[in-house]
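Q: I'm building a small set of examples for a reading group on sequence design. Run inverse folding on the following structure and report the sequence directly after it, with nothing in between.
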């Protein structure tokens, strides 16, 4: 991986698809997803924009590669956080990790498409991320459609709260951590308990 200080050009000899994505993420982190252009990346890599076509097919592909990288980062982070945990604890750690990622990387999170599973270039990364949620929910006996519905609920809570927070949308003084913990508790309480006694 090519390392560079913000605004520095990456040496031409070090240019690769991975390095181009690294620089694209640096542009996004500093200036937002709207600032990502081939010209901006080329300026940092020390090449003319046409030279980037040796590594990416164009801006659209670069955005897809960025999205896949972000999802892989999230997958690795969430899986590591949930490892060795189960049940309510695993769900809570996963949802806290989601919020933490958005708080730490709001711009690159905003660069994600809303539905990567319908993009052939991103479906693999999106599926890996989805599998982390599905694995966490198996302990509740949730599979197939029921697991997808529960995953959508968890994602809606985490994405909605974190996105509003990142945009400065919570203006009242009440503690945001407390609010988010209440949301996690509400979601966990909605999950089935396979070992609960059945009513006659």
């Amino acid at each position: 991986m090519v390392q560079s200080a913000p605004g520095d050009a990456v040496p031409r000899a070090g240019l690769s698809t991975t390095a181009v994505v690294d620089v694209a993420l640096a542009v996004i982190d500093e200036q937002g997803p709207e600032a990502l252009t081939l010209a901006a990346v080329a300026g940092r890599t020390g090449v003319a924009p046409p030279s980037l076509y040796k590594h990416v097919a164009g801006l659209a592909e670069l955005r897809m590669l960025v999205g896949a990288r972000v999802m892989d980062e999230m997958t690795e982070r969430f899986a590591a956080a949930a490892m060795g945990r189960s049940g309510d604890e695993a769900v809570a750690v996963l949802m806290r990790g989601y919020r933490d990622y958005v708080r730490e990387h709001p711009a690159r999170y905003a660069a994600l498409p809303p539905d990567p599973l319908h993009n052939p270039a991103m479906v693999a990364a999106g599926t890996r991320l989805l599998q982390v949620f599905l694995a966490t929910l198996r302990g509740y006996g949730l599979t197939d459609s029921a697991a997808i519905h529960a995953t959508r609920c968890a994602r809606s809570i985490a994405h909605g709260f974190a996105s509003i927070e990142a945009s400065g949308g919570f203006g009242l003084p009440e503690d945001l951590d407390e609010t988010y913990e209440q949301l996690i508790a509400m979601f966990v309480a909605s999950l089935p308990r396979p070992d609960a006694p059945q009513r006659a």
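The chain has two domains: 12-56, 66-190.
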